[in-house]
Protein: Oxaloacetate decarboxylase
Amino acid sequence: MDWTDRRKRFRAVLAGARCVHPGSVFDPLSARIAEDLGFEVGMFAGSVASLAVLGAPDLIVLTLSEFADQAYRINRAGKLPLLVDADHGYGNALNVKRTVEELETAGVAALTIEDTVLPRPYGEDKPALVPIDEGIGKMKAALAGRQDPHLVVVGRTSALAVTSVEDTIARARAYEAAGVDAMFLVGARTRAQVEAISGAIRIPLILGGVGPELTDLDWLAAHDVRISLQGHQPIMAAVQAVHDTLKALRAGTPPAKLANIASSDLMKRVTRDADYARWTKEFLGVG
Ligand SMILES: O=C([O-])CC(=O)C(=O)O
Ligand SMILES: [Mg+2]
Structure:
């Protein structure tokens, strides 16, 4: 597969002048839907991976292999440049390097490595960050694991939510100096926070879990934010739709009377039916 083209398109978003919302995707069909609707980039979050693969909450019990397998299934289904949340890189800096190797092979366009202490240690009820030097080591290991120079390595910190703006700036500067391509900030609440951080570094920002002051895409774009997450509603909508459909069927609703069932046109589109029809004719001599 040619993964480089989608990595170049992801880099063009980072280098551009706009701020976009990614499509939150979790499997091949959802990725194709996001691509067909024109999303510039897709996002495959750790929480969503835990839901889709394990049916579990976001407690980092998923393994790297499970995450990379699902990322590969998403990537091979289309050409959407995919940003993935690689959590803390599944261990220490050596695990981070391995994580980048596996996710690059799985075709991701970009990945985040965060400096949160994960999984949650015994007896800890609040999130904590690894020391900044350990974070730097993890960013360096991530960059050392990259083979395709077009792959985007993003440093991620929750320091805004856990420590302070000053600590966030110190971490962002240190990870920028280590060579990451962008910084992903969790928990930004105010414009003042984003101004302070974007003014302290040269690399672009990606925001997750923002407050209501930070929803204007033009303002975000003017402050070097290139991607802003909106949450992961698509998988929640899918859960609700499956629930409602099974509930209605269980209650005796005739299949023809169900609401919100994909049309056969939509099913053909998301399964790339025309391609398979062509291949069936060409390779099986039928149709
Ligand atoms: O991606 C986000 O919005 C936050 C996150 O880490 C996840 O959902 O796993
Ligand atoms: Mg996550």
